[in-house]
Amino acid sequence: MGGQQYKVSVIGSGNWGSAIARLVGQNVEKHPDLFDQTVRVWVFEEEVNGRKLTDIINNDHENVKYLPGIRLPDNIKALSDVQEAARDANILVFVMPHQFVYKTCENLRGVIHNDCRAISLIKGLDFHNNEIMLFSDEISRILGIECCALSGANLASEVAEEKYGESTIGTKNIETDGKIFHKLFHTNYLNITVIGDYSGLQVCGALKNVVAIAAGISDGLKYGNNTKSAFIRRGLLEMRKFGKTFFGGVHTETFFESCGVADLITTCAGGRNRKVAEAFIGSNKTIEEVEKELLNGQKSQGTTTALEIHRFLKARNMTDMFPLMTSVYQVIYENAPPESIIDALQH
Ligand SMILES: NC(=O)C1=CN([C@@H]2O[C@H](COP(=O)(O)OP(=O)(O)OC[C@H]3O[C@@H](n4cnc5c(N)ncnc54)[C@H](O)[C@@H]3O)[C@@H](O)[C@H]2O)C=CC1
Ligand SMILES: O=C(CO)COP(=O)(O)O
């Protein structure tokens, strides 16, 4: 692709999708030699206050539903047709709740250039036919293109407000994709490190959401900071064990990057998973009802991930090896008393 400008499309426009589209919109302007100056964004169309969300984004430069109060750059072009949003792109940034990835990728089959490359910002793992897969690998398989991943301690609203933070890119191709994606995402307020362990990075992004539910349960029970730290520590150990047990090439060092312990801390302090789990305690509602009431269409991925992990471990008789993951599942889905989650710490 020597000398050619990369056309970037962001596939997804929720809370993180909008914050990252904003950052990418800014960064392509800093590298006009490298990137086309328009960033197309696929929006799952919906009506907000009687207007199409795409029209609101294109005319008012704000995603009023998923990232209210933040101005998006003028070079962001929202499109409701995913094929139109991705056609001719050289770079695809996948950023959507993990339950929507397959359908979206299927719609893109045959539309994507084979010199295109992708990056997954999705925090979740793919459990399919009782096997476990990385979304970067699935995107790669379905679309026939290379796909790496970005994950980090990145609460979307804070990144959108340009509060300083860090993030991690995991890729097999550090010299090629690592360099181009570093250019696309690194800013003075988001410091990017590139590593080779893309599997460990994605395991962290998915499992920290389940640990954040444990932190939320702990907060809902008013257990205090020491208890929450115990959940975070045990959670980190289970994240590492899960990665090393089920994926090759997972390194302990990855858990010390932004995608590891830092993301765990930020999500357990200020994330949606924690917030929903805290409100769930004592509510007499299902977790889905609480999520709907609190998040206005945003999704907390940890509940689905807890269920998927549990089914996967149960099929292998391995639930005992992951007491915290198991206990979160039991509290959320099997009406286990929330206080029983402490047993997971004494295992
Ligand atoms: N929000 C955050 O602070 C961060 C989120 N992430 C991860 O980024 C990914 C995307 O999350 P967000 O952008 O925050 O999304 P979100 O949870 O804010 O929004 C939900 C999105 O799903 C879309 N949607 C609803 N129904 C759909 C359907 N049937 N098909 C396709 N799309 C549909 C909505 O239009 C909306 O864009 C997730 O894996 C999340 O864990 C990662 C870092 C930070
Ligand atoms: O991934 C996140 C921060 O890095 C956001 O976490 P929540 O989905 O729990 O808000």
Automatic annotation (TrEMBL):
* Known EC number: 1.1.1.8
Q: Which GO terms describe its cellular component?
A: cytosol
Quick check: keyword NAD in the entry? yes
Q: Name one GO biological process term.
A: carbohydrate metabolic process
**Location of the active site:** K208 (proton acceptor)
The keyword Transmembrane helix is assigned to this record: no
At the top level, the lineage of the source is Eukaryota
The UniProt entry, under InterPro entries, shows: 6-PGluconate_DH-like_C_sf, 6PGD_dom2, G3P_DH_NAD-dep, G3P_DH_NAD-dep_C, G3P_DH_NAD-dep_euk, G3P_DH_NAD-dep_N, NAD(P)-bd_dom_sf
Q: Which UniProt keywords apply?
A: NAD, Oxidoreductase
Mind telling me which PROSITE patterns this protein's record contains?
A: NAD_G3PDH
One Pfam entry for this protein is NAD_Gly3P_dh_C
Q: Name one GO molecular function term.
A: glycerol-3-phosphate dehydrogenase (NAD+) activity
Ranges for domain Glycerol-3-phosphate dehydrogenase NAD-dependent N-terminal come to 7-175
The entry marks the following residues as binding substrate, namely: K123, R272, N273
User: Which residue ranges does the record assign to the Glycerol-3-phosphate dehydrogenase NAD-dependent C-terminal domain?
Assistant: 197-342
Task: Please write the reaction equations for the catalytic activity of this protein.
Answer: sn-glycerol 3-phosphate + NAD(+) = dihydroxyacetone phosphate + NADH + H(+)
Instruction: Write out the residues that bind NAD(+).
Output: G12, S13, G14, N15, W16, G17, F44, F100, A156, R272, K299, Q301
Name residues in a coiled coil: none
Give the protein family. Belongs to the NAD-dependent glycerol-3-phosphate dehydrogenase family.
Q: What is this protein called?
A: Glycerol-3-phosphate dehydrogenase [NAD(+)]
> Which species is listed as the source?
Circinella minor
- Lineage of producing organism: Eukaryota, Fungi, Fungi incertae sedis, Mucoromycota, Mucoromycotina
